[in-house]
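If I may wish for something, please walk me through the protein I am sending here so I can picture the backbone:
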Amino acid sequence: MTSLFLKGVAICCLAAIPAAADLCHAKDFFHLIWLLRGGKVLAQNDENTYLGKITNKYDSESIFSEHGPYGSSYYANSLWNRNGEFGSKYGPYSAFNSNSSKPPMIIKEGKIVGYITTNKWISGGCSPNLLKALSDKV
């Protein structure tokens, strides 16, 4: 398992997800973003709700576009809606529920390459806060 650390705290834990062998070899945060760029974000609910893409903030479907639905803190299907199903501290499919066993998936080329989660026990999980902090690099 490979972990990326910031000030001594593991904020992205990359492990042997079969489809994500490249992620396990991420050299640094920028390499990680490069590997995730273009990935679609889907919820692990029964509908696999589409939650946006990992692209630059100018893409209307980007999870980083504050003016698009998926980057908005108000849109129901946004990771950043703290009162929504996918962004609250308590939602079972939320990226911000540190106990969720079903956080949003990152899909690239039809394969799960990671998860967006604050749950440090999820193999292949990346902090949503880390991704947002690095969003200008996408």
Remarks:
- Residues 10-137 form one domain.
- Strands lie at 2-6, 9-14, 40-42, 50-53, 105-108, 111-116, 125-126.
